[in-house]
Design a protein that fits this description.
The complex is a heterodimer of chains A (112) and B (114).
Chain A (H helix, E strand, L loop, with lengths): L4 E3 L2 E4 L5 E6 L6 E7 L5 E8 L2 E5 L7 E4 L6 E5 L8 E8 L6 E2 L3 E5 L1
Parallel strand pairs in A: 2-11
Antiparallel strand pairs in A: 1-3, 3-8, 4-5, 4-9, 5-6, 7-8, 9-10, 9-11
Chain B lengths: L2 E3 L4 E5 L4 E3 L2 E3 L4 E8 L5 E7 L5 E3 L5 E5 L4 E6 L8 E9 L7 E2 L3 E6 L1
Parallel strand pairs in B: 2-12
Antiparallel strand pairs in B: 1-4, 3-9, 5-6, 5-10, 7-8, 8-9, 10-11, 10-12
Classes of the chains: A mainly beta (112), B mainly beta (114).
């Protein structure tokens, strides 16, 4: 059964450093998403991407964040200059024409 | 703004007994409602959805959910719980407009005792 994959599973970085989180969505899906879950809190929407552009973004998704689909298979989230409060589990999701979204296993980002 | 409430942090049930995990929602327009399950160190796994039609929807692993428009609820149910159902369950909602972003509840931990 096809699934969303994410790398790395755990990323440790120092405050102020740039990180790139990578995702491979399900191959025939058209919609791509990033969510995050700070420890002990709700899963929060960050951004959605469709037709090679951002279709929605939340207040969290400020200028420090960017997304890209560089090669038709990968979908990346870049955080330009990480802050302590960016520490969270980051989930990638993808969806087809149906309404449900399929989530990857997540990348745990720890900013020290 | 859309929102989801899961009033119980944890639900405990004995194996073989029926289970219910509660969810209420608020959204503009008609809701699209979802249940996801999260096992330790795993991502969110889609269980079932309600878009339109029959108020009782069936999903994976014997789970079902009942949509109640007047009570704005979408409770998850299973007639007979298994120990392996123990996990974290999330309810999510979006509206039926072009926006696809999901709003999640805070999650309910289901503990099924043998």
């Amino acid at each position: 059964e096809p699934e969303v994959t994410q790398t790395p599973s755990h990323q440790v970085t120092q405050m102020g450093q740039e990180v790139i989180l990578r995702c491979v969505p399900i191959s025939n899906h058209l919609y791509f998403y990033w969510y995050r879950q700070i420890l002990g809190q709700k899963v929060e929407f960050l951004v959605s991407f469709y037709n090679n552009e951002i279709s929605e973004k939340s207040e969290i998704f400020d200028d420090q964040f960017s997304v890209e689909r560089p090669d038709g298979s990968n979908f990346t989230l870049k955080i330009r200059s990480t802050k302590l409060e960016d520490s969270a589990m980051y989930f990638c999701a993808s969806g087809g024409e149906g309404s449900e979204q399929y989530f990857g296993p997540g990348t745990r980002l720890t900013v020290t | 703004a859309q929102s989801v409430a899961q009033p119980e942090d944890q639900v405990n049930v004995a194996e073989g007994n029926p289970l219910t995990v509660k969810c209420t929602y608020s959204v503009s327009g008609n809701p699209y409602l979802f249940w996801y399950v999260q096992y330790p160190n795993r991502g969110l796994q889609f269980l079932l959805k309600y878009i339109t039609g029959d108020n009782l929807v069936k999903g994976s692993y014997g789970f079902e959910a009942e949509f109640n428009k007047s009570q704005t609820s979408f409770h998850l149910k299973k007639p007979s719980a298994l120990v392996s159902d123990s996990a974290l369950y999330f309810c999510a909602v979006r509206g039926n407009t072009g926006r696809r972003a999901l709003t999640f509840g805070s999650g309910t931990r289901l503990q099924v005792q043998p």
